[in-house]
Design a protein that fits this description.
This protein has helices at 51-65, 88-91, 115-124, 163-170, 172-194, 246-255, 268-286; strands spanning 12-15, 19-23, 28-33, 38-39, 42-43, 74-77, 94-98, 101-102, 105-112, 126-127, 130-131, 141-147, 150-151, 198-210, 213-217, 226-230. With 291 residues, the protein is of the alpha+beta class. The strands form 4 sheets. Strands 8, 9, 12, 13, 14, 15 and 16 form a 7-stranded antiparallel beta sheet that branches. It is globular and about 60 Å long.
């Protein structure tokens, strides 16, 4: 087989904000996690070295760890498929997955109040339109895990969805499955991560259908799709020490950017500190060295 390179990959199946997917066979795909970074639903002009490898390998870790909760699309890391002739610099951030019919809902689980949920709460005392207890502080845990779905936008910003809107889109039975499975995945990962000194404040997951069966797809519990806080230094009422791209978001906000494209270039210092955070999250959670 001819060696695969980023200029000589199989036919493109899908190009996302940070992930490119290519056809391998009729039923399998090569999913490549790039070093591209998005924030506020805008792809930034500056890449984060090692980011793609972290996203790929930490997702593989979680897919294997949560397979008892729901089937997923993961088959192999490209590193473990030498017959594909994928160069190491691509293979370390690629996985072979089963092709699925994607459900166009971003399934978000929130265990702690932060980010857009905190901003809405300060304005109206609600999260996604639902009343919350009075007196909550930034970083407080919710009384119970919230399911706050959004649209899956290819371009521009994802929009909040009510549960009724999810029901209208996919039907009551599947909507209930999406909600319950999202919360189960988050709760399991949150408890495991806490044992490693990391608080997963929230996460988003995606699902598809394979032969009619609900299946977990895309990425899972990465520093891109989740907020990872350091348990050491965690204290409600302030921004938390983190291992995710909140560091990038904070710099972008401080720069005065209005969250509309084009985004500004990231300084070298921000790039390096973000890289370090991603790698540390991977090492802490998995106990492994990044391949």
């Amino acid at each position: 087989m001819t060696a695969i390179s980023e200029t000589n990959l199989p036919n493109t199946f899908h190009r996302g904000k940070v992930r490119d997917t290519y056809n391998l066979t009729e039923g399998t795909l090569l999913m490549v996690a790039t070093d591209r970074t998005s924030a506020f639903d805008v792809v930034l002009p500056t890449a984060i070295p090692e980011k793609g490898a972290v996203l790929c390998q930490i997702s593989a870790f979680w897919f294997e760890k949560t397979a008892d909760i729901i089937p997923n699309h993961f088959l192999d890391l490209a590193l473990d498929r030498p017959e594909l002739n994928v160069p190491p610099e691509i293979a370390r951030r690629s996985m072979v997955v089963k092709k699925a019919e994607r459900i166009n809902v971003e399934c978000v689980a929130r265990g702690f109040i932060t980010g857009s949920a905190w901003a809405e709460y300060r304005r109206s005392g609600t999260v996604q339109g639902n009343p919350m207890p009075e007196g909550m502080r930034e970083g407080d845990p919710f009384p119970e895990v919230l399911f706050t779905p959004t649209t899956k936008a290819e371009v521009g910003h994802d929009e909040n969805m009510s549960f009724a809107e999810v029901v209208d889109m996919v039907g009551a039975e599947l909507a209930n499955q999406l909600r319950d499975t999202t919360i189960a995945l988050y709760s399991s990962a949150r408890d495991f991560a806490r044992s490693k000194g990391i608080i997963i404040a929230d996460t988003k997951v995606e699902f598809g259908l394979i032969d009619g069966e609900l299946t977990l797809i895309d990425e899972l519990m990465t520093p891109d799709s989740s907020r990872f806080w350091d348990e050491i230094g965690y204290e409600p009422g302030k921004s938390q020490p983190n291992f995710d791209k909140q560091f990038v978001r904070d710099w972008l906000d401080a720069s005065g950017w209005d969250h509309e494209p084009p985004a500004p270039e990231l300084p070298d210092e921000i790039v390096e500190k973000t890289r370090q955070r991603y790698v540390e999250a991977f090492t802490r959670l998995t106990g492994m060295t990044l391949s």
